[in-house]
Amino acid sequence: MPISIIFSFFLMITPTSAHATDLNYFKNTYEESEQDFDRIFKQIKQKNPKSDVLEFQYSQGTIKSYLIPAATPENLLIMISGTHGVEGFTGSAVQRNLLAQLPELKKTSVLMIHGFNLYGFKNKRRVNEHNIDLNRNFIIDRKGFTSDDQAYTGLNSFLNPNEAPSLNLFSRPLFVLRSVANIAQHSMESLRRSILQGQYSVPQGIFYGGAQIEPQAGLIEAVIAEFIGKKYQKIFIVDLHTGYGERGRLHLMSGKSTDANSIELLKIFEKSEIDFADAKNFYAVQGELLHYFINRLKIRSAFNTSGVTFEYGTLDSQKTFGSIESLRRMILENQNFHFPADSKTSTDIQNMFVEMFYPSDPSWRSEVLRQSDEKMKKVFHYLEN
Ligand SMILES: [Zn+2]
């Protein structure tokens, strides 16, 4: 086939909703993502010399937070990527895509926290170096906190097998059968809740929230002290995630529909766009970073702070079979981390896991950017007016 025909074939299948070059924001390693971030930030700093970087050092390296101040700063957008390590590939792409085409902002400064769970981003894990899920770790009142882990610990041998995983012909149908039996016994809703809400009893298990707050709490304080102080009136936080929900759709996830934060979100987005935690197929999370961050900002000053989780769906996990497959990949990856299988099986498990949180499909990636642009226009409208 002549090259020109092959080339035009590729042009035909290239999605039209975003520029093909935008897909270059989706990198394969943390290091490439970080280099590209620095490249874009350098260009911004030339135009806006007051732009600044805060470097937070801890055992796993340096987490960078980038501030691009408005001409007369009144309000602030904070965007966080990589709270769940491996999800940072998409989050980082969304951040850079937004920065590279940042609109003229009169009164809204922009703060980008890049790779919040640096270890997980570098090592393609969802959890951090202590097997902790950082979006289950930020308990606001640790002293008075107890988690009802009874249903989870009852399922422990199913969720966290203590042997090397295998991917033979029967492993998947067997897992589906065991899941269906568990669903029949406990109901889908209560299973989803008891697994996804976070647990504080099994340190090697999935969705472990940890016994104490992780070092990133220090990053939050440093960012507030260095970049926020008491400067702003309205603050809006976007925490970027992937993996839950309808494939190719950006879900806006919030707490219960009656929460003050949810009511603020209704000023920015339409009701139909938001997935509240009390809606069917959605769930509330203990120790969520977003609510902790909002709480810290409220304690430090009387900011009007609100925020949302952007969740880009990948496996249709709001449906029964999608959620079983999501759970299967979560379990396999964690099991393989603690009880490594042979190298072929390990690689297959790793690839399935990464594909769940970072789909390679170009049309998925291009939809991520398109839908983010659409929602961020509304956020900027809220902050600029
Ligand atoms: Zn996540």
From TrEMBL:
Alphabetical list of InterPro entries matching this protein: DUF2817
Signal peptide: 1-20
Record's keyword terms, sorted: Signal
Pfam family, one: DUF2817
Superkingdom field: Bacteria
Gene3D superfamilies for this protein: Zn peptidases (3.40.630.10)
Name by which UniProt lists this protein: DUF2817 domain-containing protein
